[in-house]
């Protein structure tokens, strides 16, 4: 949204306007050289990228791509932020998660950049009686505490309130969230819990603790079950509306009820989608508050967590890059609090180094990159504004679907919501299997000889409800089979890469095949002969021209030497002696799984 200076100087004024159709003709010319004969809008569509929820990212956005005005920070519809000052004063709240009763780790975090604590309490975390010990030495008047206690929310909350009283923390100074989330717990475990104590806690917070909230609207269970961005938004709205109904029925006003809710979303390494999701979430919640007659209460408090789904167990160091991008997106999207999961999150309890890297990720973005000094830095981008608008509409439609099913609880219990999420994940799993959505260090550029990173086991997470998925799960299963074979036999399954012709002809496809089979834990062998390799299968690697000349003969030689299966790295064609083809876009998981089956790797 360009604003001209007072003197009216327009820097592009001396340049002639370029019609959109001229740009499309130029695109069509380039595509024609690559074999695609398309014109006009079809040429532009050929460069578009399909997203989930029926959305598409186009290659070019201009002033023609209108979106509703986002308003101003701190004012409805709160697209640009829930507070007028945004995070410019001190950056976002750096919130670290702890699942073990380790007071030393808690103090180390608070002394080195963390500003609030997120504590998992109960059977899968810190025992309620140990809460005081874990918080020993913590200045509770300075460090907000957020609980996540599931069915033990009421005793955990009462213990925290007791600690406030015992340590002389004034009620108007206490900050944080008691973490009640009955529907979120039901999504995790398949079992809900009584809402009456929750409404009592909310009433007490509203009357006695102005800086303390009682409920969390956690969208992570739906994200971790494979849900899309719009489904995450729709579930959070449906959950929040259900809580509004319970709280107002218990006697709280709409304004008081809204003030008791904190929303939790996932941030992924898709930075623009994450930015748009957080902006859309604020707009949607503002619409709900307006419909409930409390437009000024529609400023959504957002706690954003880097996505557990994107975290990998193999080559976990790459997770640092993923969480950095996700944290940048969360900050640029206007998150109030951000939790960066340690890079070894998927492996067990994080060590001190991993926690340090996690908290320093936010510190660098705030203190060195000055990311928080600009409110809504992505605002005004035609792409981001349009994506925000489209995502808001998609999220609203999914919210309406849940309401038609009878609300969030009914949608969960009927299985309809779970099926919607499963369908979305199945479609995404297909892209992962074909490496259309690559995973660095796992499906692309795997390091098969890497030394495993070992951590102490973490408490078992809550289960019994919606599944928890990970992007790497299919490849992790293949690598686990290879690891078991290595432990049992002393070597990994092997495949021989037969390079045909000079390096210029075979290097590209040899590298492709090497990466592909290593993704399944199969060791590629490029030196010596097939007989010397210890492999039972082989892959031909060369150029199309050399395949026409030599593929049949080389495949015959490999079969004669004992190769049970001969692949060709390239598009399927007519090459006698070749049993199968591997190429960009093939189902890598299916190919690798079948290969391990033939090799007897269980």
From TrEMBL:
SUPFAM superfamilies with a match to the protein in the record: Cobalamin (vitamin B12)-dependent enzymes (SSF51703)
Superkingdom classification of source: Bacteria
EC number, UniProt record: 5.4.99.2
Residues of the Methylmalonyl-CoA mutase alpha/beta chain catalytic domain: 131-452
Record protein name field: methylmalonyl-CoA mutase
Cofactor(s) listed in the protein's UniProt record: adenosylcob(III)alamin
Keyword Isomerase: yes
PANTHER family: METHYLMALONYL-COA MUTASE, MITOCHONDRIAL, METHYLMALONYL-COA MUTASE, MITOCHONDRIAL-RELATED
Matches recorded under Gene3D superfamilies: 1.10.196.20, Cobalamin-binding domain, Methylmalonyl-CoA mutase
Pfam family membership, one: MM_CoA_mutase
Family: Belongs to the methylmalonyl-CoA mutase family.
Keyword Isomerase appears in the UniProt entry: yes
InterPro entries, per the entry: Cbl-dep_enz_cat (IPR016176), Me-malonyl-CoA_mutase_sm_su_N (IPR024067), MeMalonylCoA_mutase_a/b_cat (IPR006099), MeMalonylCoA_mutase_a/b_site (IPR058549)
Assembly and binders: Heterodimer of an alpha and a beta chain.
Keyword annotations: Cobalamin, Cobalt, Isomerase
Top enzyme category: isomerase
Organism of derivation: Streptomyces purpurascens
């Amino acid at each position: 949204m360009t604003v001209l200076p007072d003197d009216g100087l327009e820097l592009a004024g001396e340049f002639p306007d370029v019609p959109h159709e001229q740009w499309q003709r130029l695109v069509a010319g380039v595509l024609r050289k690559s074999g695609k004969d398309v014109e006009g809008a079809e040429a532009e569509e050929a460069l578009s990228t399909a997203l989930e929820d029926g959305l598409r990212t186009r290659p070019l956005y201009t002033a023609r791509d209108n979106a509703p005005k986002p308003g101003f920070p701190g004012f409805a519809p709160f697209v640009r932020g829930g507070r007028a000052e945004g995070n410019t004063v001190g950056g976002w709240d750096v919130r670290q998660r702890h699942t073990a009763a380790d007071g030393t780790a808690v103090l180390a975090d608070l002394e080195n950049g963390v500003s609030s604590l997120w504590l998992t309490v109960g059977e899968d975390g810190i025992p309620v009686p140990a809460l005081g010990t874990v918080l020993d030495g913590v200045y509770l008047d300075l460090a907000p505490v957020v609980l996540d206690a599931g069915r033990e929310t009421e005793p955990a909350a009462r213990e925290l309130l007791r600690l406030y009283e015992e340590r002389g923390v004034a009620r108007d100074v206490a900050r944080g969230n008691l973490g009640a989330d009955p529907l979120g717990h039901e999504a995790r475990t398949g079992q809900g819990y009584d809402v009456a104590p929750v409404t009592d806690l909310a009433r007490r917070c509203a009357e006695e603790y102005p800086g303390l909230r009682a409920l969390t609207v956690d969208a992570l269970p739906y994200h971790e079950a494979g849900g899309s961005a719009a489904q995450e938004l729709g579930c959070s709205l449906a959950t929040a509306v259900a809580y509004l109904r319970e709280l107002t029925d218990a006697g709280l006003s709409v304004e008081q009820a809204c003030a008791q809710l904190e929303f939790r979303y996932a941030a992924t390494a898709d930075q623009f989608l994450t930015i748009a999701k957080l902006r859309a979430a604020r707009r949607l919640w503002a619409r709900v508050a307006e419909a409930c007659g409390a437009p000024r209460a529609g400023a959504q408090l957002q706690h954003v967590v880097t996505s557990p789904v994107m975290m990998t167990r193999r080559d976990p160091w790459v997770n640092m890059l993923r969480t950095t991008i996700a944290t940048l997106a969360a900050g640029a999207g206007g998150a109030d609090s951000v939790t960066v999961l340690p890079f070894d999150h998927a492996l067990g309890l994080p060590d001190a180094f991993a926690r340090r890297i996690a908290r320093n990720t936010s510190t660098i973005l705030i203190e060195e990159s000055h990311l928080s000094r600009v409110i809504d830095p992505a605002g005004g981008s035609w792409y981001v504004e349009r994506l925000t608008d489209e995502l808001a509409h998609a999220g609203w439609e999914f919210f309406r679907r849940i309401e038609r099913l009878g609300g969030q609880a009914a949608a969960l219990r009927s299985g309809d919501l779970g099926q919607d999420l499963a369908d979305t994940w199945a479609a995404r799993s297909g892209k992962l299997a074909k490496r259309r959505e690559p995973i660095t260090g796992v499906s692309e550029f795997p390091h098969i000889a890497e030394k495993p990173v070992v951590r102490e086991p973490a408490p078992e997470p809550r289960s019994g409800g919606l599944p928890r998925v990970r992007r790497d799960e299919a490849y992790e299963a293949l690598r686990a089979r290879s690891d078991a074979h290595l432990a049992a036999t002393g070597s990994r399954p092997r495949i021989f890469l037969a390079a045909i012709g000079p390096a210029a002809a075979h290097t590209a496809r040899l590298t492709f095949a090497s990466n592909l089979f290593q993704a399944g834990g199969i060791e590629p062998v490029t030196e010596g002969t097939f007989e010397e390799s210890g492999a039972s299968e082989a892959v031909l690697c060369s150029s199309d021209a050399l395949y026409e000349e030599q593929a049949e003969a080389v495949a015959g030689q490999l079969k004669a030497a004992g190769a049970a299966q001969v692949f060709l790295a390239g598009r399927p064609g007519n090459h006698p002696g070749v049993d199968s083809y591997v190429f960009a876009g093939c189902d890598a998981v299916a190919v690798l799984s079948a290969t391990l089956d033939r090799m007897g790797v269980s």
